[in-house]
Amino acid sequence: MEIIFNLEDVKSAGLPILQYFILYCINNDIPLGNVGNTNEDLVYLQNEGYIRVVESKITLKLKSVKLFESNDKQPISEFVAEWRGLFPSGMTWGRPTKGSKSSCVKKMTKFMKNNKKVARVDILNATRFYIDNKMRGGVYEGQSADYFIDKNGDSTLEGVIEHIKEKGINVDNHLDDNPFIKQV
User: Fold this and answer.
1) For the chain, what is the radius of gyration of the CA atoms?
2) Is the pTM of this model over 0.70?
């Protein structure tokens, strides 16, 4: 698994990178394994008010949660506009590939509410990965944007995010060679 940090986020958090990494792992349910001197780091994070440890159960305090929400402050309508821009213009299966703005905002709002641990960057990467896999000779043959989020209670977006995580796919490496994908 490859994890990439924006060093500006680490710097603005005011934490050593190891402690930031530990918080990131806890926030994203990634096993810590043998990361540094974990016990000392956990004591440090608890003393600084980032986590609470009770009977070996670690919970993030509001101070930590805010660290990882900072990238997601963009209004949902602006995020959806950026996200819809990843889809090529045109029609797919008789529907506009980008779906309608209102339908996408409504479905994405619900998706993000039901999947709070999914970061916006994961949504963008999963979408790019999906589009890449649905391009055939420069023609998009996938779902429309709104159906990709949810169609009759089934979310292809959620499935693609799970697939990427389960397989440990490095989306950036996968997409680098495809000329049809807009890079974000």
Assistant:
1) 19
2) no
